[in-house]
Amino acid sequence: MLSTHADLSAQIGSYTYKVQTKDGRSTYSVSDGTDTLTLPIRWIFGQHAQTWVLEKDGHYYESLVSFFPRPNGLAITPGDQRITPHNLTEAMGRQLPIWEVRTCFNCHGSGVVEGEKLDPARVTPGLDCERCHLGAQQHMADSARDNFKTLPKSLKRLDAEQISDFCGQCHRTFDTVLRNKWHGPAFVRIQPYRLEISKCFIGNDPRISCLACHNPHQPLNHDIASYDSKCLACHGETKSTSTAVAMKTCPVAKSNCTSCHMPKVELPGGNAQFTDHYIRIVHAGEPYPK
């Protein structure tokens, strides 16, 4: 994104923010009109909207402003609207506790976290095989020596609830939402929780799980019609067995199911919409269901 947006700026309150890229290097600056604080951008998080993690005096900060495709510029980072900066450092960003730094790098990159140790210099952008398939790197090294015994643990036997918890390591879990008492549309992006409160989610039916609709080895499919077959795997059946329960068929349509039953919700302060994974019959004008 920075390569195509070489000069970004925004005035937020009494502070001016600039994100500039030149000769392949990007900087993040904040000014109060008298003094300016400028730091190099070394770590970028996000594929569409992007937030920067900055380092100053041995501490890590989440940039107070982020880039959003809508409005194609800088705006306050989601969740940071409540912050009132009193100096340039606070205006630069929110200081992150070390546990949160580990979480950020561990879910947006690979190879940077080992136990409690954090080494951002080792980060590989995105997720590699090892992130989900523990032991994959050793397996690849051994297979080069014709040793195929060190196979990573198979994930095929995980049921729907276990898959939600597995994906929830980064996407957050049902338990995390309840424990923190999170409510409201800001948490529509916690897909495992929203999916699990759906009436049709029973925890052991492979037809309704993260992996039933999403292939983690492929980019997200934005074609809503491609998900129809997933919905009809339950709602298109007329018979049931002890392991596959037939659900009611939709009397309205048999296509574009998610456009009605998984509506998009505006993320407060996020300049983006998220698909609500709480599968339900949606009534026009009803408030966001918590």
UniProtKB/TrEMBL annotation:
Protein's name according to its UniProt entry: Cytochrome c-552/4 domain-containing protein
Domain of life: Bacteria
The species this protein was found in: Telmatobacter sp. DSM 110680
Keywords: Signal
The keyword tRNA-binding is annotated on this UniProt entry: no
